[in-house]
Every structure is written in C-alpha cells, then in structure tokens.
Amino acid sequence: MDGLNPELMRGSLELMVLSVLSDGSKYGYLIQQSLRDASDELVELKAGTLYPILHKLETKKMVRCRWDDSTGRRRKWYELTAAGKKQLKVRVDEWQAYVECLRRVLGPLADPSPMPA
Fold first, then answer.
1. Residue 70 pLDDT greater than 90, yes or no
2. How far apart are CA 75 and CA 82, in angstroms?
3. Reported pTM
4. Cα–Cα dist 11/64, whole Å
5. E runs forming strands in 7-112
6. Does a structural domain hold residue 117?
7. Residue 51 sits in a domain of what CATH number?
8. Which residue of 25, 39, 72, 88 lies most exposed, with the fewest beta carbons within 10 A?
9. DSSP letter at 60?
C-alpha cells in the first residue's frame, strides 16, 4: 500500500496534527516526520498541505507559534493551546465513535483476520 486514500485522510488531518503536537512543540518538518513515523510511513503530509492546516489551527486559537533560532536555523515552532488540547479530546472522542460506527456497519468485513478466498 503506497499510502492512505487522500479522501479518507482529508477529514482527519487536523486531528493528526493536533495529536502529534500533544506531546510538545514542533516545527513543520518535525510535525511531518512525526506523522510519517507514527503512521508507519502511510501519512506523507506535504508542506503545501501542512502549513495551511497550521495557519487554520492558529486562527482558531488551537495552536500558537513562536520563532526560535536556538537550533542554528530560525524556525517557527507550533504548540497546542488549552483550547487545542480541549478540541483534541473532543475530536478523539468523535473519531472513536465514528470508527466504532464503521465497525458495526461493516460487520465481518471489518474483521482484521484474512477473508476466505
């Protein structure tokens, strides 16, 4: 599998970004790398997709940013706000309910064991 269907991912990208920021502040490349690592390389989020998401989250006051050059390069670091942490919890609960709904609807098709030929 070369990655996840973009249509399936579209509705969960903000949740993924909030999630990787939940363990501390990161700059853009670290966010991309965290998503790639956590997903076993199934999520390859391009900068052209990531930065609009970060700007949107910043506008919604879920993420705040700061510039820092202590790593030798001037980078914009992003971190969750209290509102972002609260929204992450809400979205995780919604996502878990959605996944459970899909499992019920798909029934035996959602069973991870191999299907008979």
1. no
2. 22
3. 0.85
4. 22
5. 26-27, 63-68, 75-80
6. no
7. 1.10.10.10
8. 72
9. T
User: Is there a domain that residue 74 lies in?
Assistant: yes
Q: Does any domain span residue 64?
A: yes
Domain count, the chain: 1
Considering the domain boundaries, does residue 113 fall inside one?
Answer: no
Among 67, 65, 100, 64, CA closest to 85: 64
Q: What is the mean pLDDT of residues 62-69?
A: 95
DSSP annotation string for the chain: --S--HHHHHTTHHHHHHHHHTTS-EEHHHHHHHHHHHTTT-----HHHHHHHHHHHHHTTSEEEEEE-TTSS-EEEEEE-HHHHHHHHHHHHHHHHHHHHHHHHHGGGG-SSPPP-
pLDDT for 1 equals 43
Residue 30: which domain range?
A: 6-104
Give the Cα separation of 91 and 19 in Å (integer).
Answer: 10
